């Protein structure tokens, strides 16, 4: 969970609540979902909050939320922006890996020491979250008075250029340095350069931003010393580069709102791509729709239309009563029949079209709007009530089956494991010799993560055996035999499912020992099936992860549900294993005998 350091005196000043005590502030912040985690040696409050509210990564954003909470501000606020005087020209030499750029000009910023520290903290927190450690997006903030833009001829205005250069093509004085270095030398010799060298390690050409005087920014690594921002800086140039336009545009919005809170005036910039020109920042106000019935049902309270709109406005949103609920139902469920039924049942159901400000990157679904209404109402003011239907708690049949199978595996000498359900394509397929999309066990179409946090976890695993092989690989320093088993999630793409993903629980086991054979794995599998009184047969089959002639299909009650055999030497070598491994994997639901 993100933690932000906030100066309580600065928070009181920005909210206009000079008389608020620290304890009162903590209580008010808790009502917004920000938990007090302690304080720094300098007396700054350390506040932890949900990672979705990235607009609260600075004291300016926290103060904004408090002003809405107090009722001092209402509805959507969009800063005024002046027409662009500056242009960012995107050269065709820009690295393909980092093609996007955005920016803004900020004039008249009031940057005290505390204000400058807050903006720097916001910059680094955005790098770590939305920017994915600067890989997806990185921010550069410069003293505008130290830039000399290239004149745009008769049109007037100034321009800078975003381009790609070779590592030793040019040089500049980087921040925290007193000598000129090429970008390549920065990556080798500068502490910040070494820290972020991996971000651009695979780039053929390095990103660079030039004004008329030369190179002044090496994104996403470091800015030049010439344009360093200080408390004396009043006019700023904000530039962002990244791999995704949406991400850097919204990071820019959050930065601009924070500087607007410091009394700055915002000015747009033109971004001139080879195929067209756009104007940034784009403070577009999005809309989503949510029904009144959904709000009342989820929160368990009765509200009239006026109260609901008031709560939306106290959340920093605008709301208008409408009767069209198509958008709500389409977002609420992916089941077409359910949508049609809901439209028939709720054709006259009152709903609200809600306007969402540009800095709110967290509102993805009508449920997020309901959460805002609940916080504005006050979750502590909600009265607990018993559900209308009384039930007796108990374990689900699938959970009972899983527990019983786990006990049997432990009784057969296996050590029970719990591994991550996410994995990389290399571990899931390549290192096991399996081709994605093939019809063998584990060869299902991959369920890829759209925005993976790490290259080690880019998809949901299609089977559990690769996870066990990874454990064996990491345990080569441990004594043998190593008999390991896991019951866990496996998934593959399936367009017949509402979610396009088919999930199941898989049972996998490995026997790593000097005398491990197919018969050992099959014997354990037979004992497990006897415990559940299901019929097992093992006809010969082929599987790229196993030795030909030493592998069989696991057929339970006449249905093929898995595979058993001796792991192929290529797979063993790939995992640095120097002794035989016998293994099996099959679907857990086969043990239910249904």
TrEMBL record:
Keywords tagged on the record: Aminoacyl-tRNA synthetase, ATP-binding, Cytoplasm, Ligase, Magnesium, Metal-binding, Nucleotide-binding, Protein biosynthesis
EC numbers for this chain: 6.1.1.20
Gene Ontology molecular-function annotations: ATP binding; magnesium ion binding; phenylalanine-tRNA ligase activity; RNA binding
SUPFAM superfamilies: Class II aaRS and biotin synthetases, Putative DNA-binding domain
PROSITE patterns tied to this protein: B5
A GO cellular component entry from the record: phenylalanine-tRNA ligase complex
Protein name: Phenylalanine--tRNA ligase beta subunit
């Amino acid at each position: 969970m993100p933690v932000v350091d906030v100066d309580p005196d600065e928070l009181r000043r920005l909210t206009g609540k000079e008389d608020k005590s620290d304890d009162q502030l903590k209580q008010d912040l808790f009502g917004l979902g920000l938990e007090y985690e302690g304080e720094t040696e300098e007396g700054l409050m350390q506040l932890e909050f949900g990672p979705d509210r990235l607009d609260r990564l600075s004291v300016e954003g926290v103060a904004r939320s408090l002003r809405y909470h107090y009722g001092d501000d209402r509805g959507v606020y969009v800063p005024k922006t002046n027409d662009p005087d500056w242009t960012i020209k995107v050269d065709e030499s820009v690295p393909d890996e980092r093609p996007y750029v955005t920016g803004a000009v900020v004039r008249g910023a009031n940057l005290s020491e505390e204000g400058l520290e807050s903006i720097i903290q916001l910059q680094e927190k955005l790098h770590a979250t939305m920017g994915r450690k600067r890989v997806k997006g990185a921010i550069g903030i410069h003293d505008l008075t130290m830039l000399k833009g290239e004149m745009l001829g008769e049109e007037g205005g100034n321009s800078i250029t975003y381009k790609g250069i070779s590592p030793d093509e040019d040089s500049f004085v980087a921040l925290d340095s007193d000598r000129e270095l090429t970008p390549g030398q920065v990556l080798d010799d500068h502490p910040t350069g070494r820290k972020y060298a991996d971000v651009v390690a695979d780039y053929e050409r390095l990103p660079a931003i030039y004004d008329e005087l030369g190179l002044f920014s090496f994104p996403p690594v470091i800015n030049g010393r010439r344009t360093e921002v200080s408390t004396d800086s009043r006019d700023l140039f904000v530039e962002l580069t990244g791999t995704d336009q949406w991400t850097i545009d919204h990071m820019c919005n959050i930065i601009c709102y924070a500087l607007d809170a410091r009394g700055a005036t915002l000015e747009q910039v033109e971004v001139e791509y080879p195929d067209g020109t756009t104007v940034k920042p784009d403070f577009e106000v999005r809309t989503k729709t949510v029904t009144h019935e959904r709000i009342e049902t989820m929160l368990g309270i009765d509200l009239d239309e006026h109260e609901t709109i008031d709560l939306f406005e106290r959340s920093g949103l605008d709301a208008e009563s409408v009767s069209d609920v198509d958008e709500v139902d389409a977002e609420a469920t992916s089941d077409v029949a359910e949508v049609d039924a809901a439209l028939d049942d709720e054709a006259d159901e009152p709903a609200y079209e809600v306007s969402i400000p540009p800095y709110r990157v967290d509102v993805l679904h009508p449920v997020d709007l309901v959460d805002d209404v609940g916080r504005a109402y006050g979750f502590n003011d909600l009265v607990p009530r018993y559900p209308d239907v009384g039930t007796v708690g108990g374990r689900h049949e699938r959970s009972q089956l899983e527990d019983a199978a786990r006990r049997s595996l432990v009784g057969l000498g296996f050590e029970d494991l719990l591994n991550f359900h996410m994995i990389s394509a290399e571990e899931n397929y390549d290192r096991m010799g399996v081709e994605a999309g093939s019809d063998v066990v584990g060869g299902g179409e991959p369920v890829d993560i759209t925005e993976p946090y790490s290259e080690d976890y880019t998809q949901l695993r299609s089977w559990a055996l690769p996870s066990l092989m990874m454990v064996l690989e990491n345990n080569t320093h441990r004594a043998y035999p190593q008999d390991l088993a896991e019951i866990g999630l496996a998934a593959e793409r399936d367009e017949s499912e509402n979610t396009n993903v088919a999930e199941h629980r898989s049972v996998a086991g490995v026997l790593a020992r000097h005398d491990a054979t197919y018969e050992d794995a099959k014997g354990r599998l037979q004992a497990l099936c006897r415990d559940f009184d299901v019929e097992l047969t093992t006809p010969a089959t082929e599987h790229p992860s196993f030795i030909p002639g030493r592998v069989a299909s696991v057929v339970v009650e006449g249905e093929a549900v898995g595979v058993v055999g001796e792991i192929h030497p290529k797979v063993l070598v790939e995992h640095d294993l120097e002794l035989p491994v016998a293994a099996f994997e099959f679907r857990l639901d086969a043990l239910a005998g249904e």
